[in-house]
Amino acid sequence: MCRWLAYHGPEIRLSTLLHDPEHSLLVQSKHATQSSWVVNGDGVGIGWYKDDPDPGQYRETRAAWNDENVKSLARHTRSGLFLAHVRAVTQGVVSRTNTHPFLMGDWLFQHNGDVGGFKTMQRRIDSELIDPWFGDREGQTDSETMFALALTHGLREDPAAGITGMINTILELREELGIDDPFMMSIATTGGDELWCARFAIGVTPPSMYWGHGLNLRNCDGGCTQLHEGATVVVSEPLDAEEFTWHEVPDSSLVRVDDGGVHVQPLELCSDN
């Protein structure tokens, strides 16, 4: 499984989370501790918002630990809203176009998990997609199609409805087509304002997801970095060993992060089969 993080708060250097913590995303790329896939070396990507409504994007097929460009970019780029992802392939080949986070319009999206039976339902999902999202896909992953499906269900206008609509469509097709393979996801998405995340699975334990607010992170050099009290980090697994400062997101939950804090609520789904 992939590993990812998302940040919402006052501007910081991207390296504050990608590189500096004792269990940073770069460390997780070769030594994940809460996944059956220890190594996540099939690509690395970052999407960030700065002064332009359209986000910056960096995606590379190198393993994160071997990518000097992403390390330099993270040290020299500041943002108050960004996503970052290290990939372990489950669907699609290793390529830039299949590397997260994905960009459509001015929205970013990243996913950890697997849509079991995706090939069986892909044509049916494609028939649900509307323009421009149908044609905006560049790769072949289930993840990017999930993004297009969420946009079709109104992600830009109502993120909660877009995310639940995407999940409900997959659940309905699983039942209709008799698909029993596990469906699991942890996702993060944003259009440059609020950050939205969700954790869900059927037939298997959902991918891990945690959030922390105003963290005092232990760094790999033995020091600590105190984040602003208004800073929120959502991650696949904690960035340090201070587990009491991290809150696990319950299964079947939707997370909204805004300037007012972190809001966790149950997903409103049509089926829990």
Structure description:
By secondary structure, this protein is of the alpha+beta class. The chain contains 7 helices and 15 strands. Strand 14 and strand 15 form a beta hairpin. It is globular.
CATH arch. level architecture: 4-Layer Sandwich
Radius of gyration: 17 Å
In whole angstroms, the N-to-C terminal distance is 23 Å
Under CATH, the topology is which?
Glutamine Phosphoribosylpyrophosphate, subunit 1, domain 1
Helix/strand order, N-terminal first: EHHEEHEEEHHHHEEEEEEEEE
User: Main beta sheet: strand number and arrangement?
Assistant: 7 strands, antiparallel
Compact overview of the structure:
The protein is α+β, with helices and mostly antiparallel strands and 273 residues long. It has a single domain, classed as Aminohydrolase, N-terminal nucleophile (Ntn) domain (Glutamine Phosphoribosylpyrophosphate, subunit 1, domain 1), CATH 3.60.20.10. 23% of the residues lie in helices and 32% in strands.
